[in-house]
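haha ok so turns out i had the wrong file open the whole time. this is the CORRECT one, sorry everyone. sequence first:
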Amino acid sequence: MSEPPVVAQTVGVFRAFATLAVFLVLRNPQPLRLDTLLAGIRQSTGRAVLESDVALFRGILGARTIDLHWAAAATDSDSDNQDKDGDSPCLFVSLNLARDPDPPAKRPSKRPRKTVAPQPVLLVKQLVDRFSKSLRERISTHQDGDGAAALIDRIARENLPPRPSPPASGLQGAEPAASSVPHLLATLKSSRFYADQLLDAAATTVPAKPASYQALSADIDPAIWSALSIDQLYSHQAQAISAAMQGRSLVLSTSTASGKSTAYQVPLLQRLLDDPQST
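then structure:
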């Protein structure tokens, strides 16, 4: 049985991540700000690595090797041009380069040992080999039958820590944060499935406008309005219902959740009341 292509693709993404992450951790063994790391990977390799990919790496290798956590971004208080995200939490990744994160205790040696600096290429190869082996083992023992890609996506979702909620403002009846839609878009972009389907250039904001209502000229049984809990109609609903009651063919095209279903339900219910035997 051939291996799903997503396995080799995922290992390739991990190799791009590990190559830069290992280099940075060897220089400074501190948690890395994830958005900065991912931007560096894209710039140096041309490969797009997502937050969800790193969450998958955490799920495969374990949190003792790769961990994700939210923390406040560090800013330089003496700088006139501080990071605009300084007050907002950022996602950080911690990388433990020990082959065994919890090695057993060893008896002290009487002979002094020569300290050898770790080789980045060897560390990257060890990490990639561990990840590749663990990923293939997880897929081979997967029993749900929904495929390797679905398993990978589920592991990523389970290991991506939720963004912490902003502190309460203390104001009664405060309006929800206006950033909810941008945050939703950012969450979708971090998903492996949606990442290439959302284009920043195509994002538009449609301004709100007042609703347009219209009286209905057709005679509709009051029981229908009562059953549907409707006391007034939008103009496109009234025009569509009137046209349908006259036996005319029509196409109704409006935005989502604008009541298009009502435009065909009302004439249908009225016809059934007029002629219970109609089909």
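Confidence is low (pLDDT under 50) at residues 75-86, 169-178.
again sry for the mixup
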